[in-house]
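Trying the structure run again after the queue cleared.
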Amino acid sequence: MSGSNEPPTGAGSLDDALGAALADTVRGTGASTGGLYLIEDAEPVLRLVALCGLPLAFSSPWRRLPLTAPVPVADAIRDDRLVRIASQDEMARRYPRIAAVLPYPFALTAVPVTGVRRSWGGLFLMWPATRPRPLTPRESDHITFVARRMARLLDDATGPPFLPDQPRVVPVEAAHQPVQTGLAAADYLERLPEGALALDLEGRIVFATATAARLLGRSADRLLGTRPWQSLPWLDDPVYEDHYRTAVVSRSPVSFSAVRPPDLRLTFQLHPDASGISVRVLPGGEPADGPPASADARPARAAPTGRLYQLVHLAAALTETVTVRDLVALIAHQILPAFGAQGLVLSSAEAGRLKITGSHGYPADVIERLDALSLDTDLTPAGQVVASGTPAFFAHPAEMTASYPRAPRISGKQAWAFLPLIISGRPVGCCILSYDRPHAFTADERAVLTSLSGLIAQALDRARLYDAQHRLVDELQRALLPRALPRLPGLDVAARSMPAGHGIEVGGDFFDVLRLNDTTAAAVVGDVEGHSVAAAALMGQVRIAVHAHATAGATPEEVLVRTNRLLADLDSDLLVSCLYAHLDLARHQVSFASAGHVPPLLRPTGRPGGVLEVEPGPLLGIGTAARYPVTTAPLLPGTTLALYTDGLVELPGTDATHTTARLAAHLDGADDQDLERLIDRLVRHTAPSGRHTDDITVLLLRTTRTPDGQR
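Done. Tokens:
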């Protein structure tokens, strides 16, 4: 998909159609807010491309999200289902990060936007908590229908959809109603004893009566175009901005009191809708908390409420990063946009040097020059920042040049924030945010970035440890599986083993293909229960046992019987499922023996294929007296045979028999000649999001003709 700042030719009409469909859905369902996410092609990331009913600033923490993020729209896409959150209490239980960042009462529904060719993204809608009833089945069907209509628009587009850096704000046009003239309405409001203000969804004052201006103590021309908490010092408090945010998100009336110095108590009543907020300003009200503000004392400026929520969101996201790559992606996709930065360099302190572990927004030659600099370098402030533990902010190249003359010339950046990454007094690295233009760092930006640096440090230290352990586990797993598959005349082979992502736990799936002689071969797929070093060790022993018995000329039944006895001798508490196949290419026949394993799939050339029913024996390790029946099937030239582990078909909330039948039908209809691409298709069919809860191993074998056309 396109990710540039300029839309490709013809993208406007598609963007317009998607925006119109979004606005129609918001109006037709009575929703207050709607948004459309599309999946980026380069990586599994969701980008918010259209927003309806909320200010653009509110979308900052949510503009780019990993497809694995714990949010409703990502779950809807991954699970290909409608996700419904009926209340704020339910949101807090199921999605605590969202509840922390948006602590307002609202309901939400998310649906996938899935077309014929691919999954495009997801649609979400929000309703006020005052909605009198939940969605009816008919309304849910309507939302799903709109999502399918959006998918068809994307399927039929001549080019990829345009993915803007910022979402397009789509207006919700209210139905036209008869209205009085503006002059008559203004005269009516001016006669009332109370003040009246109108705010747009961004919080700016777009209308103020003379009475409101008098009560607020500022002329109307000085109020228009400003936000009340910015133009009125006595409202300059995050609490008052939060009342506005509550009204916008929840679409519910909000009332609060405040004291205009020295002692004039005012009540503000906010009445929101899709176009803005009407505010009644009345003298009197409940006493405000704390003493009245003095007439000449301006309160200390607090960080904007939105920034505080942003910090909560980013802190929660940092705790969920696992690898260094995850951390770099999070900083690049969420922290950089949140602070308006364009560049990132993340370095770890190793043996007196700063080793760059990730970057964004820099050419490769610049990163190569900055990599592995000594901590006492005078090329950049990074080493000094790590040594002192004190962050450094440079708003303009001149500030940097005064102490580090060469630094601005290296990257061409115009402003920098150097954040030391320190854990318990121990430096672990440095995080550099940079800007393409000069940038004055406000006090709250410095405070938030300094706070984030501690969280980034912990995340980096944790991610480096995870990566080191994961490398050891990966090397162990690779050592236990065949390094390469044998080449056999008349047989094409491809295999794939994919761990489920259980952290540093080792999976128990295994496979092997053995060349027995010029016309016979053996193939085996198995699964040791559990994810541990013990499971991996047993997996290696089982694979070696199968290899030894098969190459010694044992029949399929004997291979499993003897391997089962080995497990009894080892006195292991773990059980093993296994499917062994003996392929006779001269007789065009395959013989199977199964130890409680999932059945293979068989697709003969020119004939319908399906699930091959193999009579199973007990799992390996249950008892020494177990027998393993043999099932035979024809293996004509051009036949494709699929052996796999249960992670491919046993999915949460689904029936494995149904999933296996669908997988067989998918294999039967596939026209891929390349077995590696066919494995990709089979895995995507059952795990379209790329996320799977168990290890997956797939072994494909296809009989072919020799060059002279004979077996």
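The longest strand covers residues 119-128. Worth checking whether this holds up in the mutant runs.
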